[in-house]
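Case study 2.
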Amino acid sequence: MNPIVRQMVNQKIRNLTVKELIKLGRENNISLTVKQATAVLNILQDQPFDIGNKNIVLNVNNQLKQLDPALYKKARQLLKPYESYLDYSLD
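Prediction:
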């Protein structure tokens, strides 16, 4: 992955706010409560996120699954555009 693109994606994900995540959800017809958005962001921002680090991304993926399977599906839908930058599969 291009290092500049990697840095931009990481910065975008690291700096997401609850308000932005809820707005992104609305734009994609996905309803998120403030509590749900906060839970997703707490997991995403618990450690320095790096889309190029497979272990970190898979760990975030697993934490979201364990938190709430329905919320995990919503989060995956919202973060789907960023999956194209992965050099590996989340499935």
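Residues 3-83 form one domain.
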